[in-house]
Design brief:
The complex is a heterodimer of chains A (111) and B (113). Chain A has no helices and 11 strands. Chain A has 111 residues and is an all-beta fold. In chain B, strands 2, 4, 5, 6, 9, 10 and 11 form a 7-stranded mixed β-sheet that branches. Chain B is globular and about 35 Å long. Classes of the chains: A mainly beta (111), B mainly beta (113).
Chain lengths: 111, 113
């Protein structure tokens, strides 16, 4: 399977805390993206980091990429109840040229 | 109001029937995709299309068929040959095939009775 893994599978925190999700993949990549999915809805793109970048910020989101370890992390700072959703990483293989999605992390932020 | 739409939101099918899921986009995107999502799993690619009248199989194309007669439309037919079709189906589009971010529709939940 080309799918990698996300860790943890589920995460439960209180509002105001930070949430960190990790993604591991298996092949060489052009870029890695993070998406959010609210229950029963489509995915929404959050942020894209290219293979020559190591860190990227967007609002309360911080993404890191370590191509030597084939891993990425998504940090959501000062979480809110509205951040409750599933988060998926997806990477573009250099050869395959199609997005491959991870298995997702379910985040629950309690008020 | 640009976007990507899918219909219906919920679909029920009897075993042995073919059903067609609709996907329409007005983003003027060249590439369109169909994914299947099962509980606890990520998205798996069924079919994709880079241009009108052309499409390619993804990882799990067996039991599915598509057409791309218009740039804005990419319907998916779930045939009776698909052995376990109950799932959440997501359509997406992007400016360039593979290289760009993808924009997703709201999904169709298919249940086989």
């Amino acid at each position: 399977s080309q799918q990698g893994e996300e860790d943890p599978q589920a995460l439960s925190i209180q509002e105001g805390e930070n949430a960190t999700m990790n993604c591991s993949y298996k092949t060489s990549i052009n870029n890695l993206q993070w998406y959010r999915q609210n229950s029963g809805r489509g995915l929404v793109h959050l942020i894209l980091i290219r293979s020559n970048e190591r860190e990227k910020h967007s609002g309360r989101l911080r993404v890191t990429l370590d191509t030597s370890k084939k891993s990425s992390s998504l940090l959501i700072t000062a979480s809110r109840a509205a951040d409750t959703a599933s988060y998926f990483c997806a990477w573009l293989n250099t050869g395959f040229q199609k997005l491959v999605f991870g298995t997702g992390t379910r985040l629950l932020v309690s008020p | 109001d640009g976007g990507i739409t899918q219909s219906p939101k919920y679909l029920f099918r009897k075993e042995g029937q073919n059903v067609t899921l609709s996907c329409e986009q007005n983003l003027n995107h060249d590439a369109m995709y169909w994914y299947r999502q099962d509980p606890g799993q990520g998205l798996r690619l069924i079919y994709y299309s880079q241009i009108v009248n052309d499409f390619q199989k993804g990882d799990i194309a067996e039991g599915y068929s598509v057409s791309r007669e218009k740039k804005e439309s990419f319907p998916l037919t779930v045939t009776s040959a698909q052995k376990n079709p109950t799932a959440f189906y997501l359509c997406a589009s992007s400016i360039l095939e593979g290289t760009d971010t993808q924009y997703f529709g709201p999904g169709t939940r298919l249940t086989v009775l």
